[in-house]
DNA sequence: TCTTAAATAGGATTGATTCCTATTTGTCAA
DNA sequence: TTGACAAATAGGAATCAATCCTATTTAAGA
């Protein structure tokens, strides 16, 4: 990601914080910068270890609390998992997920065919849908290859 | 659920265990019986507390390990969550989920319109899809009502 | 500046899961 | 039916994740 693009997104992020009456702290900006440059779907611990390089005194609690705050104001998503630590997704645009059941990898994909997953009428009346996602479980290519070795 | 239906499913379950060279222990059968009669999506701890009534000496580890074993042989599903303890689903037929972001409730639904979620060709070549599910995040009626009180 | 509520650091606590090991038990073959 | 053995269990210890607690620091508006 270009420095220019990072700066642009940080500016937008700061806007969002202000709109929600959140103080702009160096820790929050640092965490946000790590997040948007991280490999997809990091855990709080992973973010913590990376941020620690820039802020050696930062605590895990701050990172974790901050990530939850970011989720609340819509700066990131908590993604669905099948157990294990929470995982966060800085990509809040519509997309779908493949979950490898063997290695736990989550792979993003976009697909025109799922673009308008209409919500059944019966549900729309009793449930307020905020986001929709197709989750495909299975085996990624690496794990399929490994299985065939036996 | 009728006793007859339970007996039928237990027989099928025992078949499945045999196919996978798993021993038929009273604990496994007990856990399976609790599972198919439980409210949907119980945690290991919930299953443990119920099974404990019939097997006072059973350990949490046995319940938890057994549930994982059941998932491996396809007797149940581990369902997607957004953090918190693992949750298991005895309903392995195709269905979809609503997740209430406020109370964490998971509501099953079936929908004709999602019946044939075709897998994009580009993905089918590199990823072996085993199950597909639409996950809708939002607010259930109870939580929507609560929010409007403020 | 000054004030104040919000945020942070760091350690303690809680909760969930897995690991370890001695003991028990289902299964299969004799 | 019995004996042998690998698999499974019980119970406690250890690990990992998340949250709580509180003294201290800090961002932001007056």
CATH topology of the largest domain in chain A: Arc Repressor Mutant, subunit A
What is the CATH superfamily label of the largest domain in chain A?
Winged helix-like DNA-binding domain superfamily/Winged helix DNA-binding domain
Largest sheet descriptor of chain A: 3 strands, mixed
Assembly type: homodimer
Question: Layout of SSEs?
Answer:
The structure is a homodimer of 150-residue chains.
Chain A: H1 3-19, H2 26-37, H3 44-54, H4 60-72, E1 77-79, E2 87-89, E3 96-100, E4 106-109, H5 121-124, E5 127-140, H6 141-148
Parallel strand pairs in A: 3-5
Antiparallel strand pairs in A: 1-2, 3-4
Chain A binds a DNA duplex (30 and 30 nucleotides) through residues 21-25, 27-28, 43-45, 57-62, 64-66, 83-86.
Polypeptide structure, described:
- The structure is a homodimer of 150-residue chains.
- The first copy, chain A, has helices spanning 3-19, 26-37, 44-54, 60-72, 121-124, 141-148; strands at 77-79, 87-89, 96-100, 106-109, 127-140.
- In chain A, the strands form two sheets. Chain A has a three-stranded mixed β-sheet. Chain A has a two-stranded antiparallel sheet with strand order 1-2.
- The model of chain A has no long low-confidence stretch (mean pLDDT 94).
- Chain A folds into two domains: 3-77, Winged helix-like DNA-binding domain superfamily/Winged helix DNA-binding domain (Arc Repressor Mutant, subunit A, Orthogonal Bundle); 93-148, Ferric-uptake regulator, C-terminal dimerisarion domain (Dna Ligase, domain 1), CATH 3.30.1490.
- Chain A is built from six helices and five strands.
- Chain A is globular, with a radius of gyration of 18 Å.
- Chain A is α+β, with helices and mostly antiparallel strands.
- Chain A starts with a helix and ends with a helix.
- Strand 5 (127-140) of chain A pairs antiparallel with strand 5 (127-140) of chain B, so a sheet runs across the interface.
- Chain A binds a DNA duplex (30 and 30 nucleotides) through residues 21-25, 27-28, 43-45, 57-62, 64-66, 83-86.
């Amino acid at each position: 990601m270009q420095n220019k693009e990072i700066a642009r997104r940080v500016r937008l992020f700061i806007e969002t914080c202000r709109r929600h009456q959140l103080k702009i702290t160096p820790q929050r900006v640092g965490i946000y910068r790590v997040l948007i440059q991280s490999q997809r779907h990091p855990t709080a611990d992973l973010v913590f270890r990376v941020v620690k390089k820039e802020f050696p005194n930062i605590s895990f609690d701050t990172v974790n609390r901050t990530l939850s705050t970011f989720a609340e104001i819509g700066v990131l998503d908590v993604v669905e998992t099948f157990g294990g630590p929470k995982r966060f997704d800085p990509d809040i645009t519509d997309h779908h997920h493949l979950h490898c059941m063997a290695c736990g990898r989550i792979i993003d994909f976009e697909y025109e065919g799922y673009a308008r997953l209409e919500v059944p009428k019966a549900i729309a009346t009793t449930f307020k849908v905020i986001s929709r996602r197709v989750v495909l479980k299975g085996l990624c290519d690496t794990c399929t290859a490994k299985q065939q070795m036996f």
